[in-house]
């Protein structure tokens, strides 16, 4: 799906363009609000499926995949604190997840149209398990290079903590993106064409 599927309205997946998402964490050592726009997700089409389980009677799919490198690049606005340090900025963000394992749980409901059964996805849940996360935010602290460089260094020295505190918000936001893309196919192609009976 690198080039997308124009006939079904599926956009190109390399990169996958996302208009915007909002990320927030309101408790614990990381308290941050982040607004992202003009996002590009690179690397999704290099993913490999490692497990695949289909329970078509219950309209559920479970898969695991691994992506060697997924880059999340977009315009950001951010404000908050990490541990005891304040952080704020507005610029370009690059969040790179290396050897990213993703656990996908897809829950469908059957919809009958014109005598055909379609699988409409009502929930798409993902869990991100990266081996390593690399963070970079340009123009932190109104462009103060010294403070920005120090904060980016601090973020990467504590990337596991920072990412784990924000991970659930990223998962929920990107789940809705994946659900929209998947429904562009499943809402238009009957179930028996996607899963032919033997």
Short description:
The protein is an alpha+beta fold and 198 residues long. It is 23% helix and 52% strand. A hairpin with a 2-residue loop joins strand 4 and strand 5 (85-113).
How confident is the prediction overall: mean pLDDT?
92
Write down the CATH topology.
Answer: Bactericidal permeability-increasing protein, domain 1
CATH class: Alpha Beta
- Biggest sheet layout: 7 strands, antiparallel
Low-confidence spans: pLDDT under 50, at least 5 residues? none
Number of strands: 7
CATH arch. level architecture: Super Roll
Number of helices: 3
* Broad structural category: alpha+beta
Number of domains: 1
User: Approximately what portion of the residues adopt beta-strand conformation?
Assistant: over 45%
What quaternary form is this? single chain
- Portion of residues within helices: 10-25%
Radius of gyration equals 19 Å
What is the N-to-C order of secondary-structure elements (H for helix, E for strand)?
EEEEEEEHHH
CA distance, first residue to last residue: 25 Å
Name its key features:
52% strand; seven-stranded antiparallel β-sheet; Bactericidal permeability-increasing protein, domain 1; 198 residues; alpha+beta
């Amino acid at each position: 799906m690198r080039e997308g599927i124009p006939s079904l309205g599926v956009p190109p997946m390399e990169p996958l363009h996302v208009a915007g998402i909002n990320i927030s964490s309101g408790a614990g050592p990381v308290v941050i609000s982040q607004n992202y726009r003009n996002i590009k997700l690179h690397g999704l089409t290099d993913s490999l499926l490692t497990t695949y389980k289909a329970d078509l009677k219950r309209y559920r799919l479970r898969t695991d995949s691994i992506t060697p490198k997924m880059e999340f690049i977009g315009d950001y606005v951010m404000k908050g604190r990490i541990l005891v340090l304040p952080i704020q900025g507005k610029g370009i963000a690059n969040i790179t997840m290396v050897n990213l394992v993703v656990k996908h749980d897809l829950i469908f409901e059957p919809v009958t149209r014109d005598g055909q059964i379609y699988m409409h996805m009502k929930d798409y849940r993902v869990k991100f398990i990266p081996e390593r996360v690399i963070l970079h935010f340009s123009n932190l602290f109104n462009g103060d290079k010294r403070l920005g460089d120090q904060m980016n260094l601090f973020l990467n020295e504590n990337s596991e903590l920072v990412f784990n505190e924000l991970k659930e918000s990223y998962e929920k936001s990107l789940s809705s993106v994946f659900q929209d893309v998947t429904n562009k196919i499943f809402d238009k192609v009957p179930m028996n064409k996607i899963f032919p009976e033997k």
